[in-house]
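Dataset card, provenance and construction

Sequences and ligand SMILES were collected as paired inputs. For each pair, a complete structure of the chain with the small molecule in place was predicted and serialized as structure tokens. The example below shows a pair involving adenosine-5'-diphosphate. Curators did not alter the output after generation; any descriptive sentences attached to a record were derived from the structure itself.
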Amino acid sequence: MKQITAVIKPFKLDDVKTAMKGAGVQGMTVTEVKGFGRQGGHTEVYRGAEYQVDLVPKVRLDAVVDDADVAAVVEALIAAANTGDIGDGKVWVSDVFDITRIRTGEKGADAV
Amino acid sequence: MKQITAVIKPFKLDDVKTAMKGAGVQGMTVTEVKGFGRQGGHTEVYRGAEYQVDLVPKVRLDAVVDDADVAAVVEALIAAANTGDIGDGKVWVSDVFDITRIRTGEKGADAV
Amino acid sequence: MKQITAVIKPFKLDDVKTAMKGAGVQGMTVTEVKGFGRQGGHTEVYRGAEYQVDLVPKVRLDAVVDDADVAAVVEALIAAANTGDIGDGKVWVSDVFDITRIRTGEKGADAV
Amino acid sequence: MEYDAGATAWVLMSSALVLFMTPGLALFYGGMTRSKNVLNMLMMNLYCVGIIPVLWVIVGFTLAFGSSGDAGWLGDFEFLGAKDLYSVLPGDLGTNQFFGALTIPVVVFSAFQLTFAVITPALISGAVADRLKFAAWALFIPLWAILVYSPVAHWVFAGGWLADLGALDFAGGAVVHMNAGAAALALVLLLGRRKGWPDTPMPPHNLTMTMLGTGILFFGWFGFNAGSALAADGIAAAAFMNTFVAAAAGMIAWLVVEWLKDGHPTTLGACSGAVAGLVAITPCAGFVGGLSPLYIGLGVGVVCYFAISMKYKFGYDDSLDVVGVHLIGGLFGTLALGLFADSSINGLVTNEGLFLGGGADLLLDQAIAAAATIGFAFVATMIIGKVIDMTIGLRVSEADELTGLDLSQHAEAGYNLADHS
Amino acid sequence: MEYDAGATAWVLMSSALVLFMTPGLALFYGGMTRSKNVLNMLMMNLYCVGIIPVLWVIVGFTLAFGSSGDAGWLGDFEFLGAKDLYSVLPGDLGTNQFFGALTIPVVVFSAFQLTFAVITPALISGAVADRLKFAAWALFIPLWAILVYSPVAHWVFAGGWLADLGALDFAGGAVVHMNAGAAALALVLLLGRRKGWPDTPMPPHNLTMTMLGTGILFFGWFGFNAGSALAADGIAAAAFMNTFVAAAAGMIAWLVVEWLKDGHPTTLGACSGAVAGLVAITPCAGFVGGLSPLYIGLGVGVVCYFAISMKYKFGYDDSLDVVGVHLIGGLFGTLALGLFADSSINGLVTNEGLFLGGGADLLLDQAIAAAATIGFAFVATMIIGKVIDMTIGLRVSEADELTGLDLSQHAEAGYNLADHS
Amino acid sequence: MEYDAGATAWVLMSSALVLFMTPGLALFYGGMTRSKNVLNMLMMNLYCVGIIPVLWVIVGFTLAFGSSGDAGWLGDFEFLGAKDLYSVLPGDLGTNQFFGALTIPVVVFSAFQLTFAVITPALISGAVADRLKFAAWALFIPLWAILVYSPVAHWVFAGGWLADLGALDFAGGAVVHMNAGAAALALVLLLGRRKGWPDTPMPPHNLTMTMLGTGILFFGWFGFNAGSALAADGIAAAAFMNTFVAAAAGMIAWLVVEWLKDGHPTTLGACSGAVAGLVAITPCAGFVGGLSPLYIGLGVGVVCYFAISMKYKFGYDDSLDVVGVHLIGGLFGTLALGLFADSSINGLVTNEGLFLGGGADLLLDQAIAAAATIGFAFVATMIIGKVIDMTIGLRVSEADELTGLDLSQHAEAGYNLADHS
Ligand SMILES: Nc1ncnc2c1ncn2[C@@H]1O[C@H](COP(=O)(O)OP(=O)(O)O)[C@@H](O)[C@H]1O
Ligand SMILES: Nc1ncnc2c1ncn2[C@@H]1O[C@H](COP(=O)(O)OP(=O)(O)O)[C@@H](O)[C@H]1O
Ligand SMILES: Nc1ncnc2c1ncn2[C@@H]1O[C@H](COP(=O)(O)OP(=O)(O)O)[C@@H](O)[C@H]1O
């Protein structure tokens, strides 16, 4: 099993979710995060004091998928998340030994 | 070392934490997340407009534990998180090379 | 590629970010989390009822970096995050197969 | 007839102030609920602002204030369907001393009283938080308003039997606070505890909201109490100052006790103490003076601090302490009037309080009024609640309780702070 | 001259109440926006509180109320630059029946009217949420205040041609609600839809804020309507009660319809229905009595529930339903007055409403007033908007819209709940 | 004695309005703190609402208003322990022109003044945000109220030496704003900077809360200023309008300056400018007319924008700009009165302002009053603060500051938005 982790632009969440469902993903976990990167940030002003804020809102997705599906899912995800503008985010894959569905105790591909 | 990641129902957090402590876990990190999965979501209505919301509140736990403890911890976690209802969540395990306690520089099993 | 995950004290975020930039990290993802650990928690009182709260606010950082940079980045991170007081947090490293920059499709070291 | 424009201005304003208290109450309670139930709490309160005025002009006002001054049990139908409401003269409202002196349009009096009729049932919402079906509330409120509120208002405010007996209630210690508090107790006994209570912590989700609600309540309570003078005169003035001092003293007393006992002075404690002071001074506001409001406020702050832990002892889940604050605080104030009533402040005080040398007569009348109100409200609410439980059911399903009442009852979420668009 | 202190007290208070409505409106709307645009919504409203008073004392008041009672189109410059504003006597303000009877200082009258001038353009903000350049708003508001608001106020409130015709508008069904609603429609047609609308869900980010705003609006509306009596008398009293009942009835009607149609009674529905009721009763407040406010409230609650879905049908993005609630609700109330106006409530009613046997005369006048107001406001706003669009541009860039207007227009974030210090 | 019901109604209402300002202030400041300190900020304000009234009826009122009109330094004990407070006639309060004309019950006057006594020390909370021990505040407030507030109130409001000298202060430019501002400066000098200031960003945690607070402050300030007429007359009317215009002008001026200088018009800027305008018009409200409030508001908006950056230059951490807004704004208004005072608005103006041809006499008196108030408040506060520091300590531990004052001082969390039950 593999864990696909992506950090994307928040307004792309819906499209990405749809694309991943289309690629066969049946479940995923979504986290509100802030991202630091090339996109840079913005300036905020409070009573004349300027603050440089270099964290921008992003959404993180984690989906554990069967090894066989990884390529297709990542591809679908990238296609949906891409706007071509800086800050579109990253997707990366890592290894998972073991996944269990808590409700049933099913393991591996049956659990996701 | 291994990282145990679980996504559970929020109201189970307390029970799961207790169970994991019981299984020897001394620390963990908790994240508020939203989950998408078989459980489906719900409908919200704002001034007559219906919105399908397919993300439900979940809690994510990450605990790095010694390889030897993984099985026991996962078992305890599953037992505590299980309600038998859809949406109970998942638990998965992945490899960690190296963990350091920032305060002391201790590594590996001493760090968790 | 490796993923460096750290859980630190929130007020250290700025210093840690700066240190990691100094060590060559060009991007990272920041999550507001709560931590459970040796640091313990605190008591809250509402209308005479005492609640033991054992989760304390922490910040989680995830940065995917090239294998070659891991040691330097972790070192810089630890140096910046350390206060010497309990609850300084952890940092751990895990394996990443594949990282893609969504905008360009670049992979591996070019993507981070 | 020439109305007194100053009095009219003040009662108009007071009516607006009291109306504003209900949203204030919604926030006061709403901040204390869990975030998944906050809208339901707001809705329970809003709903009272909606349904009660509709009922009031049709039937509620006439049941409460028809045949005012008759020493009886219930109003008649003289104002049914708003008949004559806009044209009747104050002198025709009732013949007793009180109504004879009214110098404002009856429709203002009616609007002012309406605001009381709105907030009284709303108070009950705090007790049943997090588990009552909204449909049950939607049914309960009109029934309670007509079967419980209007009668008790008639007894006390319209020269009904309790007023005739000699009991005093300046602005609703009985009609509002004990009445709602006793109803709350009955309802939570029927409804049962929240899932998880008292083992699972259910801390307030937003204390800044509660403090805002407290500010609005405090502000509005000046209209509640000083407006009950129905004139802009020395009695209104005294009621105003007494309200101020008692609320302050209630806050300080609560803070001191909790600082000593629990180790910290809390925001919620400050808010709770102020509200307790406001509750207790309500029946007394235009009848006492000097340092009496100080004593009343200090006393009730201590008493209510301890009263709210009764629920843990007896095991009823009065979720946001309606019984502990309104029933007990209202009772405290009602009895305290028997000690502190001062005829130099208000000529309607014919028996002065015990501490002013007037003997125990008034205290006894106050005790009777308290017992009658509490007894009637408790029993009547039990019956109404039971009927609803047996028909449409009082309580949401366990799954709905877990999901939260905002989604399950209203298909809404209180907060959507993360944005995906 | 001796002023009537009671009337003065009431109108002072009412002015404060109406001023408070604008922050209330800001919260009402602010809660409905997405979190990244909340400050911009607040700022659009705050800005009206800032720029309008500045303009008012210089030129706005005199354009609206100079040469009052002239049956004309626009005021003259008698009060230019606050000239005589603090010293003119009410009798000199205008010669018609209305001003002749004024018993309060003119400067109070002016302050009261100013609060209306503030909130009317602020209403428009709800329609243009999430995409209008703040600089465009900063320019639009003064232009609209002078070119649209002051004239219409003159026509109706200052004894201008519409008042002379016989149309009635107690507190601003035309001047405030239809005026702002028609302007809102014009502006959203120019501005276009929010990116993503209507496919992307844009749920309210904080309904507790919206409910607080509703509470403040409800509270302040008592000043709006009952203060428009400009005295603390029986008419103020009637206006107060009518306001209360219509708001309540609007809420109940909306809740019932949505419960039946959508399956749930919602917080936002309750708030929307109350506001709809308040809008509709505004022109009628001091002119009707009995159960008329109940019928008006129930009617408008149903009508506005359906009116807000027009935008989906016709495809204009009236983001927070200013057209659906204020234009339609104001129109409903304005016409309803033609049915329910009652001379026993207010002597200014010379033609009673159709349902009171007064024939269709008043109804016709009301229709003319509505058409004139809507037509003028729509066209004039179109022109102003077009000019701004062609000069500095109305709409933010797509990137700024995506980032949110708080950061792009104001360099601020509404919430910083996570703390890193 | 027959009171004037209109005046009484207005002052009752104004008292409620001013009381409501303190929760408003709590929110105004609370929104600007970091989320971990929000409850502490609310509590500092709430505590003033609690302790001050208790002290006031016992000793505060009599120290301020005993022997009114004596041209002296401090009141006597004639009203100690609320003695005669509910029965004394206005004519007996003091013999000077001002009190002689009072037409409302003394207890209303006392309640009104009490609201000022509550909010003045509360203003200081903004300066000491995020690091003051709550126990130190709990001790500081009563000491300051008695040793600083009551004397200064006597000097100015009770016909004490400053009033006798000829200085004018309609509603508290000296007594409230400079007094609190100077105290704030003294206290932050003793207390030191917040850990991390000014390098670490500490952005407001909730600007919607700050804007709500501003709305409440604006609303309440009408009571503050127009209520200070102690009647519902032309002076109240002028004060009302002046308050409105100056606040608006302050907002616009601030927005324009920051838009030019920092590139964006901000919500916090709009709120700050409005408050600055309100502060500056406070001493002037019932003494000026025409376009004077416009000039005063515009002026103070610019001045305070620049004043708040002094702290960066001099290195004192006046956290939420109490010095920059209240001390400087109050000073600006106090001196501006020497320029704009107008005897046609208020007969109490015996020397008109410089710009009205009255010469520099009044300006000089105003300067003396400012210097005396600032000097006294600064020194006395320094002493009180030093004593507290040396006994129980002013400042929380570094760990407690890091954790946040909500948990460390009050064992509470402001927000629990995530729910685990
Ligand atoms: N090395 C990294 N490890 C983890 N997350 C990263 C890394 N680099 C960037 N990110 C995340 O991806 C987001 C986008 O990256 P950024 O460099 O701004 O633009 P782009 O994706 O176009 O290269 C960042 O905001 C951050 O959340
Ligand atoms: N493949 C997956 N990868 C990561 N998280 C998942 C995955 N599938 C489900 N989840 C998480 O687990 C939660 C529960 O899953 P769901 O399919 O709804 O029910 P069940 O756990 O009963 O199978 C989801 O809400 C989501 O947070
Ligand atoms: N085994 C673990 N796995 C994941 N996170 C952990 C683990 N142990 C601790 N943490 C995180 O690190 C934080 C600090 O740990 P704690 O034990 O309190 O102090 P210290 O870092 O000094 O050992 C915790 O709050 C938690 O967020």
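Derived descriptions for this record:
Residues 5-410 of chain D form a domain with the Ammonium transporter fold fold (CATH 1.10.3430.10).
The two ends of chain D are 61 Å apart (CA to CA).
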